[in-house]
Amino acid sequence: MPGTPHSRAPSKSKHGNREDSPSPVILFALLIPPYLCRMLTISQRGNQMPPSPIRKLVPYAEAAKKKGIKVYHLNIGQPDIETPPAIIDAVRHADIKVLEYSHSAGNESYRRKLVQYYKRVGIDVSHDQILITTGGSEAIMFGFFTCLNPGDEVIIPEPFYANYNGFACAAGVKVVPIPSRIETGFALPPIAEFEKVITGKTRAIMICSPNNPTGYLYSREEMEAVKDICVKNDLYLFSDEAYREFCYDGDYVSAMHLGGPDSHVVLMDTISKRYSACGARLGAFVTKNKAVYDTAMKFAQARLSPPGLAQIMAEAAVDLPQSYFDAPKAEYQRRRDLLVKRLNAMPGVFCPNPGGAFYAIARLPIDDSDKFCQWLLEEFNYNNQTVMLAPATGFYSTAGLGKNEVRLAYVLNLDAINAAMDCLEKALEAYPGRM
Ligand SMILES: *Cc1c(COP(=O)(O)O)cnc(C)c1O
After folding, report:
1. CA 398 to ligand 1 center in whole angstroms
2. Torsion region of 367: left, alpha or beta (phi above 0 gives left; psi -120 to 50 gives alpha)
3. Which residue out of 163, 272, 276, 361 has the highest number of ligand 1 atoms within 8 Å of its CB and is therefore the one to mutate?
4. How many CB atoms sit inside 10 A of residue 244's CB?
5. pLDDT-derived band of residue 5, with 50, 70 and 90 as boundaries?
6. What's the CA gap between 62 and 53, in Å, rounded?
7. Does residue 77's CB lie within 6 angstroms of at least one atom of ligand 1?
8. How much is the pLDDT for 30?
9. 26-61: b or e for each residue (b if 16 or more CB lie within 10 Å)?
10. How many angstroms separate the alpha carbon of residue 139 from the centre of ligand 1?
11. Which of 406, 425, 416 is nearest to 343 (CA)?
């Protein structure tokens, strides 16, 4: 095969000095086209890591926008409420000479400030029980890394926040789902369901209240029941409380408001939703269990420190009057009321009234929510407008569940919600897979 790279490589080296020139084998290897190179592999864990189910529709939304169609984004929990200017000003006016690493647990001044915040919401902790993290996301990861071995199991009522799958995968942990049902508004599944799936490998139960994606707000009885079963079975109780400020019906009950031993409880917190500050990347890992805290601290030390500018911002946020939350909360509640009313007025649609957060799950008269959400973007428009929703399948881990459900995030103003609901109403009439 004269002229092909494969025949040239060995013949060239024949004329060279054996000491100086690279061996024919190496030359040969260099001439193998990179796409045939099989030496670099991706880790098993990397291959198993689930992509975000919410983002997979993004290319279809972009294509719709290129066609000039307006897309109402009810698909993602990015709040549109303004970040309080006072907390951004705190960063602007900070006297910074060197933007240093902070303490690995976060600035002590901020942690002491947070003690006041937690006191206001009825949680009694000290600054050395709070570890500041890079978003609630890192707090959840620290929880998995600290409390579970690879192969261990965490029980989570489904549908649940889809990124838990990613964190579990990163930690080699298995998520064991137990279904909550739309008929009950996604209330806590009966405790017997938990008992059925507890094995020798179960280490934790994870809950989120008010819930993303269902908006369900757990009652005190439900929270007590989860805590009891954790204490009885020596399990950790992971409590994701990202939405505590947004409870519309009923009181917020924290995992740290309950009776019984505190050692089981790990609270995962974030300022992202509280102050509409998702880009600050600041959260907290809170526990009274010293061994858990000290171990999480080692993970915190390895990543050196949480974001410095965000801590200045968040420290100022604790000084906002409690009344700061009145306006955002009232706004979300108006949106919820409108959204739920509009949904339930559509033939064949059922949407339970969510007690908190800014999400709702609705059951639609459709064959397949993944297909429907794609169809909304690819094939449908009403007066050149359409709506982007999240198929609920991405929030269930049991295959087949959520096929006729979608999640809606009410992070748009009332006019936009009305326009989006007009689109959805027309779309359900036109959709070929209507059931
Ligand atoms: C947004 C969110 C988080 C994580 O938020 P961060 O931006 O990483 O602080 C965690 N849990 C739930 C349920 C969320 O909705």
Report:
1. 22
2. alpha
3. 272
4. 21
5. very low
6. 16
7. yes
8. 64
9. ebbeeeeeeeeeeeeeeeeeeeeeeeebbeebeebb
10. 10
11. 425
CA-based torsion, 21, 24, 27, 29: positive or negative: negative
Across the range 420-432, mean pLDDT stands at 98
Q: Is the CB of 359 under 6 A from ligand 1?
A: no
Q: Tell me how far the alpha carbon of residue 268 lies from the centroid of ligand 1, in angstroms.
A: 9
Beta strands (DSSP E) in 66-194 are 70-73, 130-133, 153-158, 174-179
Walk me through the domains of the chain, giving residue ranges and CATH numbers.
Answer: 47-81+324-430 (3.90.1150.10), 85-319 (3.40.640.10)
Residue 78 pLDDT: 87
Query: pLDDT at position 211, please?
Result: 98
Tell me the pLDDT band of 340, cut-offs 50, 70 and 90: very high
What is the DSSP annotation of 288-303?
S-HHHHHHHHHHHHHT
What is the model's pTM?
A: 0.90
pLDDT, mean over the chain:
93
**Ligand 1 center from residue 26 Cα (angstroms):** 49
Q: What is the pLDDT of residue 11?
A: 42
* Nearest one of 118, 123, 116, 115 to 257, comparing CA atoms: 123
Give strand pairing partners of 284: 132, 269
Bridge partners (DSSP) listed for residue 154: 175, 204
Q: How far apart are CA 199 and CA 196, in angstroms?
A: 8
- 3-state helix, strand, coil split of the chain in percent (to 5) is 45, 15, 40
CB distance 76 to ligand 1 below 6 Å: no
* Helix, coil or strand: residue 70: strand
Identify which of 163, 124, 190, 136 has the alpha carbon closest to the alpha carbon of residue 310.
Answer: 136
* pLDDT for 129: 98
Angle between helices 135-147 and 163-171 (to 10 degrees): 40
208 vs 9: CA distance, rounded Å = 62
What are 374-395's pLDDT values in tens digits? Answer: 999 999 999 999 999 999 999 9
State whether the beta carbon of 358 lies less than 6 angstroms from ligand 1: no
Q: Is the pLDDT of residue 17 over 80?
A: no
pLDDT tens-digit readout, 47-91: 999 988 888 899 999 999 999 999 999 999 888 999 999 999 999
